[in-house]
Amino acid sequence: MYPQAPPRRRSAYGAPRRKPGCGPRAGIALVMMVGALIAFYGNSQQNPVTGETQRVALNVDQEVALGLQAAPEMAAQYGGAETGTQAAALVRQVGARLVNRTEARTSPYKFNFHLLKDQETINAFALPGGQIFITRALLNRLETEGQLAGVLGHEIGHVIQRHSAEHMARAGLTQGMVNAASVATDGQAGQMAAMIGQTINMRYGRDDELESDRSGLRYMYEAGYDPRALIGVMKILDEASGGGPPEFLSSHPKPANRIQHIQQLIDEQWPGGLPTGLVP
Length: 280
Ligand SMILES: [Zn+2]
Hints:
alpha+beta; 52% helix; 8% strand; binds zinc ion
């Protein structure tokens, strides 16, 4: 939803401060990364789910691999994954329900839903390939299961619409990044993964957000959740942002505008009104 690193303990790039890597393998990795940055490999592919022709930097397998590789490092930046609790199970269950009852099920992506321990940073985000995260700080503020479905559905939308791979193509980032990560030694792998994580987790554009809101609403409905719960999420985010412009809204549509937009989408998609019996 708001793909951005937490504000604390970060270097300029948002990655945890570490000693810079050295040694030949790191050098090779860096050269490969620079090569990737300079070269332009973005190619057009048809989206396997939506059929849309997109310029993306990675194929589906690479998206999955990169997401899996970066996931532990991303989780670590938010206090690590919370496991074995009811809350973690709820996140997994709601995520699975959304996947199993929507087009996400037939997509080539393997979705995993992680609860992160961070109690201060209100955030949710998706890595390419299906790794989806929500922080404790955000989960604790949600009031209903439908709202959780709203957050996760929106993130599923980012994955299926391949926003990260599109973003990387626009930024000229490519397979070279993946290669660089695999060349790095164990010690540097985490560092490289962090860089990749940060890069692919660059903020989405406004259009990406609105597009994911649209898909999220549809997924919610198809999974039996009331799409109007997403409006509740936006209100919660709006309240949480009180007192100064929150960093996570810097490149995003303001919640107030998104509420308007979401209401409009709901009116368009369900002109006769929504049925009763949906999970709020
Ligand atoms: Zn988003």
